[in-house]
């Protein structure tokens, strides 16, 4: 008599699938356990805000270096109408960017980023001031400039009065083109300085006297690049504001147009701030 063995029940399909692909238990990452794959460093978007008597092209050399390092960059246009208006515009730019942001301001652009970033601490991870104003609430650019000796800007600017169709009127100020090189960009080649003078963006005179209402450097980590050959913002004023904000400060022998004359140095400071973003 032949004895036949009982037929084994078929293995579950899921188990067969595991065997078929050779999946080992050690390859499975359970919820709540650490992933063995190293995470890539966060790359925040760098938003650059120019100041008075300049435009977004003043960041060209810095943009090139930051992009080469792998950072997404936005060189925002600054309306130059006043801290409240300009900060609101910059804030709208930042709010449309996915992920963390590092805000960088040059000159009056420092006033703008200080106001725009307040309340966005979860998104704006660092502030970088390049030859810039770091005003407290109740302060303005003109007052901080005049707080210390050394600025010759008042001697070389000229007003342009305007009246708009709705009847509103005011005055913009710009640097006289023949004075621009020496005043704003003494360490920039003359040909480039001539182009900068021609394309400079005037600022509303009232913007320089409009008080800031917020100071984001009180709640967001800050970096500062102080320009010791600056004829717009006295070096003593830059040092005072940087120290008050507890900013990580670097000094460099450069003119006010340091983003043009020394883009490597500016990009290094920005990268230092960006590398702290987690």
TrEMBL record:
Residues 1-27 form the signal peptide. The keyword Cytoplasm does not apply. One of its GO terms (molecular function) is hydrolase activity. InterPro entries: AB_hydrolase_1 (IPR000073), AB_hydrolase_fold (IPR029058), Sec-Metab_Biosynth_Hydrolase (IPR052897). The keyword Lipoprotein does not apply. Keywords: Hydrolase, Signal. It comes from the Bacteria. Pfam families: Abhydrolase_6. Residues 46-268 form the AB hydrolase-1 domain. This is Alpha/beta hydrolase. It comes from Streptomyces narbonensis.
């Amino acid at each position: 008599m032949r004895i036949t063995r009982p037929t084994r029940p078929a293995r579950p399909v899921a188990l067969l699938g595991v065997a078929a692909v050779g999946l080992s238990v050690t390859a499975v990452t359970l919820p709540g356990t650490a992933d063995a794959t190293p995470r890539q460093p966060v790359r925040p978007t760098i938003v650059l805000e120019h100041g008075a008597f300049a435009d977004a092209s003043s960041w060209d050399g810095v943009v090139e270096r930051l992009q080469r390092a792998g950072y997404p960059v936005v060189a925002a246009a600054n309306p130059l109408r006043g801290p409240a208006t300009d900060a609101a515009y910059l804030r709208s730019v930042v709010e449309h960017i996915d992920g963390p942001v590092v805000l960088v301001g040059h000159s009056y652009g420092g006033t703008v980023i200080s106001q725009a970033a307040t309340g966005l601490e979860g998104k704006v991870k660092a502030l970088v001031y390049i030859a810039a104003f770091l005003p407290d609430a109740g302060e303005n650019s003109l007052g901080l400039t005049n707080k210390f000796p050394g600025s010759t800007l008042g001697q070389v600017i000229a007003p342009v009065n305007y009246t708009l169709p709705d009847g509103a009127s005011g005055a913009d100020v710009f640097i006289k083109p023949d004075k621009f090189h020496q005043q704003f960009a003494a360490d920039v080649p003359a040909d480039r300085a001539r182009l900068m003078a021609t394309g400079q963006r005037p600022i509303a005179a009232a913007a320089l006297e409009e008080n800031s209402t917020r100071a984001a450097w009180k709640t967001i980590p800050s970096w500062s690049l102080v320009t010791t050959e600056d004829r717009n913002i006295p070096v003593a004023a830059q040092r005072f504001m940087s120290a008050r904000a507890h900013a990580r400060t670097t000094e460099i022998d450069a003119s006010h147009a340091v983003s043009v004359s020394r883009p490597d140095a500016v990009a290094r400071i920005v990268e230092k701030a960006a590398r702290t973003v987690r």
